[in-house]
Amino acid sequence: MSFLTPPPPLTDEEIFLTDIVGCSRGLVCLCGWAPDSGDTWRRINVALLWNPSIRKSVVVTVPTGSSGLGFGVCPVTNDPKIVSIKRSSWKTRYHCEEVTVYSLSSGKWTALSTNLPTQLIRESLGRAVVTDGFIYWGVEFTSRYMIMSFDLTSESFEMIDLPDNLALQDHVLVCISKRRDSVALLQYAESNDIDFCNVWMMEHGATAHRSFTKLFTVITPNDIMGFRKNGVPIIFIHDHDDDDDDFPAKLIVYEPNLQHNGYLEICPPAILLNSYMETLLLLDQV
């Protein structure tokens, strides 16, 4: 097995990248902060669009007060877009106060005034995933899990209902993920002192009431980080009994049909998995 280490993003600005927002059509969106050129004691939030294959990157200043970001490339216009959601809190819930969208073609942020999510929602569950021209977030609404989607073409939101066996929060944690080109839900639960994760797939459709199919169950107390191209899960294991203190974490590939684990030659302290394709996007950027 061979691995390729891409070169780091090149930029003339001093920026500190702290997280990955997402990956879409060969572009990676990272976020972090940079010192304000007018006030060295002040930080400004930034996002960075990065094409590892051609070593091109673009730095974008993120609106003040942004609570969360989403990223995707519009499949119709091939225009990279960043979604900034500003939320105001009410007790333990959050209300969507403002949504702004940055498009690379215009080079500016535009505030959305219609089709905003109106429900009071709590923290998103897992990272946003992008597929088929939509960004999807896992959210909590009152005492139910739901999926919030954003159409990269029409720039509109939709709340997607989940069936009761996935939506109800009865000692169960549901996280959103992506398997091949479909939205997947990871349902973590425990029964008779056995930890397991049910993997569900959302069927494609055009309504808020989608169907979900259970694919398989993984017996593990650890987190599923993502899926390989063939659809098998990759599990992040943190072995507290490992003698190697420098790299106690491991990644394993779980074969559902064989009930077998295979170790990958990656042992980082922290990791984010995402699929990737080569692209020429950002080639025209100076």
Stretches where pLDDT is under 50 for at least 5 consecutive residues are none
The tally of helices reads 1
The computed structural class is: mainly beta
Helix content: under 10%
Rg, Å, rounded:
20 Å
Distance between the termini: 36 Å
Order of helices and strands: EEEEEEEEEEEEEHEEEEEEEE
- The geometry reads as globular
Binned strand content:
over 45%
Number of distinct beta strands? 21
List the SSEs and their pairings.
Layout: E1 16-24, E2 27-36, E3 39-51, E4 56-61, E5 68-73, E6 80-90, E7 93-103, E8 108-111, E9 120-121, E10 129-131, E11 134-141, E12 144-151, E13 157-160, H1 164-167, E14 173-179, E15 182-191, E16 194-202, E17 212-219, E18 223-227, E19 233-238, E20 249-255, E21 260-263
Antiparallel strand pairs: 1-2, 2-3, 3-4, 5-6, 6-7, 7-8, 7-9, 10-11, 11-12, 12-13, 14-15, 15-16, 16-17, 18-19, 19-20, 20-21
Describe the fold and architecture.
The protein is an all-beta fold and 286 residues long. The protein is 1% helix and 53% strand. The chain is built from one helix and 21 strands. Strands 5, 6, 7, 8 and 9 form a five-stranded antiparallel beta sheet that branches. A four-stranded antiparallel beta sheet has the order 1-2-3-4, with no helix packed on it. Strands 10-11-12-13 form a four-stranded antiparallel beta sheet. Strand 1 and strand 2 form a beta hairpin. The chain is globular and about 60 Å long. The protein starts with 15 loop residues before the first strand and ends in a 23-residue tail after the last strand. 27% of the residues are buried. The model has no long low-confidence stretch (mean pLDDT 82).
